[in-house]
Design a protein that fits this description.
Layout: H1 3-26, E1 32-38, E2 44-47, H2 52-76, E3 85-88, E4 93-98, E5 103-108
Antiparallel strand pairs: 1-2, 1-5, 3-4, 4-5
């Protein structure tokens, strides 16, 4: 294993551990439905959904949405970047936290949320 491969593997392990810590924290929140962590290309790193198709749906559509939002923000204010997106519908609330190594997508049911702690 080369030094570069070792560094990439180390970074991936650290990223995965960070995802696990976040998952433990948000999964206890009222209304939590699921979490999907994706790469910049929309590949799933981690998902809590039992149905793989459900996770793939969120990964596919929201990765495009994130790219469009990032392009829009950069066009409005060059050099600026998206740090957090929140989308609420009648049935779901979707929190999107883009990062350098991965993007977290947290889905919750707003009808079951009484008091959020995150």
């Amino acid at each position: 294993m080369t030094n570069n491969e070792f560094e990439i593997e180390k970074q991936n392990k650290e990223s995965y551990q960070a995802i696990e810590v976040t998952l433990k924290r948000v999964s206890t929140q009222p209304g939590f439905v699921g979490l999907v962590a994706i790469t910049e290309k929309g590949q799933i790193i981690k998902s809590t959904f039992e149905e793989q198709e459900e996770a793939e749906k969120y990964a596919l559509y929201l990765s495009h949405f994130i790219k469009q939002a990032s392009n829009t923000v950069d066009a409005l204010k060059e050099g600026d970047e998206v740090s957090f997106l929140r989308m609420r519908t009648k049935r779901e609330e979707i929190l999107i936290i883009p990062g350098d190594k991965y993007t977290l997508i947290v889905i919750s049911d707003p009808n079951r949320i009484k008091e959020r702690k995150f």
